[in-house]
Design brief:
Strand order of the largest sheet: 10-11-12-8-13-14
Largest sheet: 6 strands, mixed
Number of strands: 23
Distance between the termini: 59 Å
Helix content: 40-55%
Strand content: 15-25%
Radius of gyration: 43 Å
Number of helices: 23
Structural class: alpha/beta
Length: about 800
């Protein structure tokens, strides 16, 4: 991929964002080395891995990668047979434990995450090596006495020898004859030998070995002859201690060396895992989706945002390569043409690198063999190039490399020279690109290019929308419509004196302004058409949701009806069984006793059984008949409650012969049996809604139940943005009848989580809240219980 293009489109800054989300140096290197691929199979594989990582983070929660370290240098040292520093051994222990924990966790994941399960399966269990290091070193990096029995014995002897020396010296210091020759009554250490401070003039009075002298020369440090032999024995023990420690560390190195290949492989697998998780974290933070990819040179971006602009980015819709090869974008300066050009290029590079895109579902990007761009001012003082010369030099280099599978992005094509010559040169370049059959997006101010694009079926016009009311750009891309410069409007907004603007308008009279006026009228019509289309689409979605809800409720109703019938049959059978038993008992008594009392008792039993059977047969039909009789009195325009839909509707037609009515429920018209209708009641007062009167509360509740999800995602938002979304969502969820909902805010540094929970504690609709279970998001999710 062209390195100059990567830098101009700021692709390295995306890699920096990715690297910031890794956990240690090895995975950070993988992030910074990520390059766009030109192989569509590799791109699709990388996108699937990113999607899997995103799903894992969304559904399971953050994966613990704490403790991972870059131990490659330490492994190289061990391979060379060198002993490490204690801190290096402790870092290796932490890394071995972290890799073992990570591998065990990944191996137990469900089959929904095959990439992570397979990577986990390729990681060795290195806990035994970590335990060996823990056995030898304490947390301060000191070798433990328990590292070996011999070391424990040596250190015990060292302790005893030191105590003997101190006792001997203490006795000497305490001697009245010797005290007058001492500078101080303390025991010191010089060169691992125990000594006492003696006055310089008294050195002959204390026989022994002189090891040091004070800076002033007034004190000499003498090892008395009485402790020389014990000091020698101590030194021998210290040498034995050093040798034993060296032996222990050599043995540890041998164990590490025996599994060096496993450690390296596991370390690289851990880096791959952390790298994939970083791609998932970036997808979360930028609120991305997975794009589709193709080999056809087609790019379709839906609600795409430039990832480096973050919250300031305006979503755009743009496409090129489907029916036409080149897109010519015109419009005012500061209108967003260059940002749009960069968005197309940068998102293409991100997709080919296997990264999700900050765009809506349905976004599709082609896998190009090369992406080339000429963006910005190419003026160079050192090379004696003007802006125009710089652009042409760059474009010349691009045209020598492009082919049919290239994406070319040219900003302000032909600018910086005479307008007529610049326009002619720009048209010639577009012709050349068409001959190469490559895909391209070009921005320009030249009207000649607008006309040329309109006449050529392989080129499409587009413009940056401009709001004539506010005199400011909206940064939206309008396909199929060339734009105008709006220079006077922008100059007005930027504060140019009014008299200058008016003179410019007068000077423009007689020039070719008719096209700009027509374009402005078409632009306004397009805005109205887009608004109408959005409203129609919203109504269609609502109707579709109501239809699906009605079908669902119909299925539920049928299931409940079957259950009720089954329960009724069971009750009837039980009633018959009990009645049969009662009758049989009455007959037995009559036969056995043959008395008047027995005959009367039998008759009473028969009458009671007959009464219960008749009641069970008549109870349900009477209820249905009562409902049908009530519904038959409803008239067109009445508000009624539809039991199967659990909502209020308006009667459009009635059919007494078929005992049914046509009812308008939201956007849906349904035919409902009379027995499924009853009078609509106001939810607050409980009063029956009069004919022609609507129940707004019932309607809101019905619609909320159809539209409100059971969880809200605010990850990546600011506190104020998240609270605005959450506050509205809690009201909707309460109306929808939810007892509890889930708030997904992510983990991060915990700032967003703490701020939202603090406000939740004071919210009137919130009964209580708690952190989700570990396997349901943990500290990244808060479960909110609502007041009913």
């Amino acid at each position: 991929m062209n390195q100059k293009t990567l830098e101009r489109l700021e692709y390295p800054r995306i890699l920096e964002l990715l690297a910031e989300r890794t956990s240690f140096a090895v995975s950070k290197e993988l992030a910074l080395q990520l390059e766009p691929s030109v192989d569509i199979d590799q791109v699709e594989l990388a996108l699937r891995e990113t999607t899997e990582a995103r799903n894992l983070l969304d559904k399971v929660g953050e994966v613990n990668t704490g403790g991972l370290r870059d131990i490659r240098t330490s492994l190289d040292q061990i391979k060379l047979g060198r002993t490490l520093e204690p801190t290096e051994y402790l870092e290796m222990r932490d890394c071995l434990q972290a890799m073992t924990r990570l591998g065990r966790y990944l191996r137990q994941l469900p089959a929904d995450y095959p990439t992570f399960v397979n990577l986990g399966a390729g990681m060795s269990d290195l806990q035994s090596l970590a335990d060996q290091i823990t056995k030898i070193f304490d947390e301060a990096g000191e070798v433990k006495d328990s590292a070996s029995p011999k070391l424990r014995s040596i250190r015990t002897q060292i302790k005893t020898a030191r105590q003997r020396i101190r006792d001997k010296l203490a006795a000497l210091i305490g001697s009245p004859e010797l005290q007058k020759h001492l500078q101080d009554t303390v025991i010191a250490v010089r060169g691992d030998r125990y000594v006492i401070p003696v006055k310089s003039e008294s050195k002959s009075a204390v026989p022994g070995v002189i090891h040091d002298r004070s800076a002033s020369g007034a004190t000499i440090f003498v090892e008395p002859l009485a402790v020389v032999e014990i000091n020698n024995a101590l030194r021998e023990l210290q040498l034995a201690e050093t040798e034993e420690i060296a032996r222990i560390l050599r043995e540890l190195n041998d164990k590490l060396l025996a599994r060096l290949a496993e450690i390296r492989q596991t370390l690289f697998r851990a880096a791959e895992i952390d790298f994939l998780l970083a791609k998932g974290r970036l997808s979360q933070d930028l609120r991305c989706s997975c794009p589709q990819v193709n080999r056809k040179g087609m790019v379709t971006l839906r609600q795409a945002r430039h990832p480096l602009l973050r919250e300031a980015a305006i979503p755009i819709d743009i496409q090129v390569g489907d029916g036409f090869r080149l897109l010519v974008i015109t419009g005012p300066n500061t209108g967003g043409k260059t940002v749009t050009l960069k968005t197309v290029g940068l998102l293409t590079l991100m997709a080919q690198a296997g990264l999700h895109l900050p765009a809506a579902e349905g976004t599709e990007v082609s896998v190009f063999s090369g992406v080339y761009c000429d963006i910005g001012d190419e003026q160079s003082i050192e090379q004696n190039l003007s802006t125009f010369s710089g652009h042409i030099s760059n474009i010349s280099a691009i045209l020598r490399e492009v082919n049919a599978n290239s994406l070319v992005l040219l900003d302000e094509l032909g600018a910086g020279t005479d307008p007529q010559e610049g326009a002619a040169l720009a048209i010639a370049i577009l012709d050349y690109l068409l001959e190469l059959k490559c895909t391209g997006v070009v921005t320009t101010h030249y009207s000649e290019l607008k006309t040329y694009a309109h006449a050529n079926p392989l080129i499409e016009n587009a413009s940056m929308e401009f709001d004539a009311t506010t005199l400011s750009p909206t940064f939206r891309v309008i396909l199929g419509l060339p734009g105008k410069s709006n220079a006077l409007e922008i100059a007005t907004r930027l504060g140019l004196p009014k008299q200058i603007i008016e003179r410019a308008r007068q000077a423009r009279v007689g020039l070719s302004t008719e096209l700009d006026e027509v374009l402005g009228e078409i632009g306004e019509e397009l805005k109205l058409a887009r608004r109408a289309r959005e409203e129609a689409e919203a109504a269609r979605r609502e109707a579709e949701q109501l239809r699906r809800r009605y079908e669902q409720l119909s299925e539920e109703l049928e299931t409940k009806r079957a259950e009720i019938l089954a329960e009724a049959r069971r009750e009837a059978k039980q009633l018959l069984d009990r009645s049969r038993a009662s009758l049989e008992e009455a007959v037995r008594l009559v036969k056995e006793e043959k008395t008047a009392e027995a005959i009367k008792a039998g008759r009473r039993t028969l009458e009671e059984v007959t009464r219960k059977l008749k009641l069970s047969q008549e109870l349900r039909p009477e209820r249905d008949l009562a409902r049908e009789a009530q519904a038959a009195e409803f008239a067109v325009g009445d508000k009624v409650y539809i039991r199967s839909l659990r909502g209020v509707g308006t009667i459009l037609e009635t059919n007494p012969a078929k005992k049914e009515a046509l009812v308008q429920a939201g956007q849906l018209k349904v035919t409902v049996p009379f027995k499924d209708l009853s009078e609509a009641q106001d939810d607050q007062t409980g009063e029956v809604i009069s004919r022609g009167q609507s129940s707004s509360i019932n309607r809101v509740i019905t619609e909320k139940r159809l539209h409100v999800p059971s969880e809200l995602m605010v990850r990546g938002m600011t506190v104020e943005e998240a609270w605005a979304e959450l506050d509205k969502y809690l009201d909707d969820a309460l109306l929808a009848g939810y007892e509890s909902v889930r708030l997904i805010h992510g983990k991060g540094e915990g700032i967003l989580r703490s701020a939202l929970r603090q406000r939740l504690a004071e919210h009137a609709a919130v009964k209580r809240f708690e952190e989700a279970a570990y396997n349901q998001g943990g500290s990244g999710v808060t479960v909110i219980y609502l007041r009913q």
